[in-house]
Amino acid sequence: MQAGGPEVVFEGVVRAYGGVPALGPLDARLPAGAFVALVGASGAGKSTLLRMVNRLVEPDSGRVLIGGVPVADRPAAALRRSIGYVFQSIGLMPHMSVAENIRLPARVAGADRGVPAPDVPALLAAVELPADYAGRRPQALSGGEAQRVGVARALATGARLMLLDEPFGALDPVTRDAVGRRYRALHDRLGLTSLMVTHDMAEALLLADRILVLDRGRLVGEGAPADLLAGRAGAAASALVDVARRQAEAIAALAR
Ligand SMILES: Nc1ncnc2c1ncn2[C@@H]1O[C@H](COP(=O)(O)OP(=O)(O)OP(=O)(O)O)[C@@H](O)[C@H]1O
């Protein structure tokens, strides 16, 4: 097993699509081992920022460093093998078993290039799925179970940096809550660095160590959940927190 998750630094990253600015200039730092949530309205640039880390999006200017090394200096394929990527429609191969799906990224990377064969039982245990799920096909899994297989697959090449783009967005609220908390426990156990895009401020407040708030491509607020709740992370962050708080208060009032 590799050492803990690395630090990630964004230095003045800028990106436009077809001449239309989408992101930046933006500076941010994810401390080694942190769980960082990225929130903001639709189109704010969250996925663009996340995908700069594994070079699915290249910045027009500025740079991203992982553990002090610019991602642009590393071949994209090798870089992506070292980073877990979990997204909403996780894309498990329907004709392959769970075990084959988990082994797939390492197989693509090539055992002959020194990529060790994944320990499927250990990975299933890490995401708290029974060992006999290894033989199941994806269609025999619930949405929450499939998402956990996606996390196991993302960890299979030994990645200690995880990018999660609305990972639990398609799950019902109860499953979403349970899978989110399980993932947070896994993050702590393995000492991962995790960057998670979410639309749900309550989820960000409950799971993350730090929250970055994006608005129209700019970082408009940043802090620990306690900072956001105390109104110390800027007006945009407070506005999003107020929505979550009003919902919680309305539910509490209904129960009285
Ligand atoms: N490949 C692309 N081509 C053109 N425009 C794009 C492309 N990808 C993103 N954009 C635009 O860039 C802006 C930021 O998009 P991005 O997907 O990063 O936002 P987001 O905050 O992740 O949004 P959402 O929450 O809706 O997923 C949006 O205006 C979007 O339309």
Question: Describe it for me?
Answer:
- With 256 residues, this protein is α/β, with parallel strands linked by helices.
- Helix content is 38%, strand content 24%.
- The protein is built from 9 helices and 10 strands.
- The chain has helices spanning 46-53, 76-81, 98-109, 120-126, 143-155, 173-190, 201-207, 225-229, 235-255; strands spanning 8-17, 20-30, 35-39, 61-66, 69-70, 83-87, 161-165, 193-197, 210-215, 218-223.
- A 6-stranded mixed sheet has the order 6-7-8-3-9-10, with helices on both faces.
- Helix 3 packs parallel to helix 5 (143-155).
- The protein is globular and about 50 Å long.
- It starts with 7 loop residues before the first strand and ends with a helix.
- The model has no long low-confidence stretch (mean pLDDT 91).
- It binds adenosine-5'-triphosphate.
- Adenosine-5'-triphosphate (ATP) binds at residues 17-18, 22, 40, 42-48.
